[in-house]
Amino acid sequence: MIVPIESLRELMFAACQAASVPEGKAGCVVDHYLAGELRGRASHGVAKFCFEAQFFSQCEGPPRIVREHGVLAVIDACREIGPISAAYAVDVAVDKAGTLGAGVVGMINTQRYGILAQWSERIAERGFIAIVMNTSRAEATPYGGRTPFLGVNPLSFAVPTLDEPAVADMSTTLAPMGALWEARRNNGRLPSDCFVDAAGYFTDDPDAARSAVVFGEHRGFAISLLVQVLTGSLFGFPMGPEVADTWSTGYTFIALDPSFGGQVDGSAEQNSKLLDAIKGAVTRDGAPVRLPGLASIQRADHALDAGVVDLDEAVYRRLQARAAGDFASD
């Protein structure tokens, strides 16, 4: 169904008010999940807002640094709402990068957020190279496997340019777990060859699915394993099957100042030059090579120009329920 963006915004603000989100924080929460929806990431947009809203009232206090050494810091988010704790972690990483050349920040005990790109972009907009990632419960298995032992381990990076930051945001699984959750709620089917059942065979049945499949076969598995370590043992956080719930999930925010690597001036110019060269490249079919993240940003710009977004009707009803103070119904 076609819904005016402002109507979505109003309902999301009403849901935040019903969940007792402080007025000064609601804008950060609404803008974050709405950005995911506008960029075409439906599993990380309004649907995820509706799911996460049931936890908003469980916040125990503002995030705080509990360990710190040089460029490293560990944050206890005190069960803060995901976009709010992420914004705090970004600020800590950026402050350290501005002083020490790098900020490597781990965060735990937080509610979840949606897309990662918003946080890597925020770091890159300050002139730093950004890497943002997190793990999850052990819900992913390599290609051909049947035993889940990795998180879905999404990864985003962004680099400053002379224009907007260039950004990539991806799961290290072929499809996000949000696709499974939504299929179960709506009695839908899963995308082909992205999830496996308990025996390790591909399935499009959301009730039979037990694991998401890591992309790229063995190479993708290696990347996912690296993300697991950088969101886990680097900070002493749980990994793999030891990640029991939302509160034991690890998040990492990295900001790198290119001037500390010897590139005093011109890093953004170099990045822009590289991107221009890529834009001039073509595929064997003559089409331009697509830059990571570009389609999502263009989709958001188009939606904002039109003032409307296409939203699943079941998700819209769920959002109306949240706005009315119902955080349990699906």
Describe what this molecule looks like in 3D.
There is one protein chain. The chain is of the alpha+beta class. It has three domains: 96 residues, Malate/L-lactate/L-sulpholactate dehydrogenase, four-helix barrel (Hypothetical Oxidoreductase Yiak, Chain: A, domain 1, Orthogonal Bundle); 176 residues, Ribosomal Protein S8, Chain: A, domain 1, CATH 3.30.1370.60; 37 residues, Wheat Germ Agglutinin (Isolectin 2), domain 1 (2-Layer Sandwich). Helices cover 38% and strands 16% of the residues. It is built from ten helices and twelve strands. It has a seven-stranded mixed beta sheet with strand order 2-3-4-11-5-7-8, with helices on both faces. A three-stranded mixed beta sheet has the order 6-10-9, with no helix packed on it. A hairpin with a 2-residue loop joins strand 2 and strand 3. Helix 1 packs across helix 2 and helix 1 crosses helix 10. The chain is globular. The two termini are 18 Å apart. The relative contact order is 0.17. The model has no long low-confidence stretch (mean pLDDT 94).
